[in-house]
Amino acid sequence: MNSYFILWPTDWCKRLAQAHDQGPLQAIYGGSHTSVPPLGRVTVGDIIHPVSIKNGQLFIIGRMRVTSILDAEEYLKGQNISRFNNELWDTSAHKLLKQNPELGHRIPRSCIENVALGTGTGLRFDFNLSTEIVSNLRFGQKPGFEKRLSINEEGKISHVGLQGHFRRLSSDSAALVAEVMREF
After folding, report:
1. What is the arithmetic mean of pLDDT over 48-75?
2. In sequence order, which residues have a C-beta less than 8 Å from that of residue 184 and are 6 or more positions away?
3. What is the CATH code for 3-174?
4. Cα(109)–Cα(12) distance, rounded to whole angstroms?
5. Left if phi > 0, otherwise alpha if psi is -120 to 50, otherwise beta: which for 182?
6. What is the pLDDT, as a whole number, of residue 111?
7. Alpha helices in 115-167 (DSSP H)
């Protein structure tokens, strides 16, 4: 089992908060876009943490254990979620969220191919990690070769280190995040 961080854009988190999406976290999409990257090596049993960066601070939005991975179109048909007039999801997502706020994070926001489904926590948009904790996190595919996120002199992190990929946490980092999530 692996644990991953996936960066959700700040504007999408803001829209979900305005729609009062409090979870539980049930679906995380993979695709071919920087803001919705491929699921990659994510498999059943793995844990995914959607995160956001606001004003240089890292926020954990939730946690979901993956129970299945499906074709996105198959999942959307089963949920009766569809785009407006065959518009791209980039355009339809905001309209659909306004019209059906109860769908929340289950609405794809960009180009999608598959979806990780599971059982997750509620969603929070105010659970930030201290710079001390963030400085102890390590990411990478190969154990022993994980790297930390870039933190500037002011203690702020950049979205660049998390953007475009599901980032696997080292086992020590996954344990640290699990410990912090007890307060979630």
Report:
1. 97
2. 60, 62, 63, 121, 124, 127
3. 2.30.130
4. 8
5. alpha
6. 85
7. 131-135
State the average pLDDT over residues 82-107: 89
Alpha-carbon gap, residue 122 to 67, rounded angstroms:
17
Q: State the pLDDT at residue 160.
A: 86
CB 136 within 8 A of CB 54: no
Rounded CA-CA distance 74/115 in Å is 10
Measured CA to CA, the distance from residue 32 to residue 47 in angstroms comes to 21
Give me the helices (H) in the chain, please: 10-18, 72-79, 89-99, 131-135, 171-180
Burial of 90 (0-12, 13-18, 19+ CB in 10 A): middle
Question: What integer pLDDT is reported at residue 182 of this predicted model?
Answer: 95
